[in-house]
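Cross-check.
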Amino acid sequence: MTGVRTYPAGVTSWIDVEQNDVAAAKAFYGGLFGWTFMEATAPGAPFRYVIARLDGKDVAGIGGPADIARAQPAASAWNTYVAVDDAHATAELVTDSGGRIVTPPAVAGEGGISVVCADPAGVEFRLWQAKRRPGAQITNTPGSWNFSDLHAVDTAESSSFYAEVFGWSIDDLGFATMIRRPGYGDHLAATTDPNIYERQSGDMVPPGFADAIGWLTPVQEAKASHWHVTFTVADRDETATAAVQLGATVLSTADTEWTRAVLIRDPQGAEFTASQFTPPGSMS
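Predicted model, tokenized:
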């Protein structure tokens, strides 16, 4: 099925990264994932934002100062956006639920309205009320966004907050904790993925996986809670090698029954995971 991919309220819908040198970020991620880029800001604007594309479809954003000479030292990190129907109303719900607003609702050109928020633990996330840009148009294929996962010290507090704000279901599967937005699978089946339930009907697929939007991972007190972005890749080892050749640092690797993953820090300091899908019985 073809058409524009849309995201119901409460579903993670977009990712981007802010870096001081947008041109350098384009060179790195374009070389690593095969992305092409389209300028989204007007000439002369103090802030530059580019849309990364894969096979002609939007996959992510890169933003930063238009003039690198005016860049201020700052930590770089990938941001995760959650789709909402009303940015102003959801921002109020965030504060009512114990979070705070870092940057109030702001119009992002014709694309939509964004809000920078922080949960009760101080972890930043963003709201996105879509207009012309509904969100990522290609996911879960090599070179595109796979999931955004919440790494939290107090998983109970985080679960309560996000469930209240977005209606999420937090499911303990024993081997991992899945974040679901109930009804998302039905939305996909009715729009861009009509065969999702048939494709996920195997015995080893967790119940409700069609609604999955990420994973909740406990972290130790000494490590800051954060949202973390994972990209799908065809070959973990080839991606790791390419990342190093492009100036990144490989922090760690991990193999599970389902994936082969590598944690990477890009040349400007933003960390992400590249994950190769290797289900049981595969030849990978």
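The CA atoms of residues 91 and 203 lie 40 Å apart. The longest strand covers residues 57-65. Passed to J.P. for a second look.
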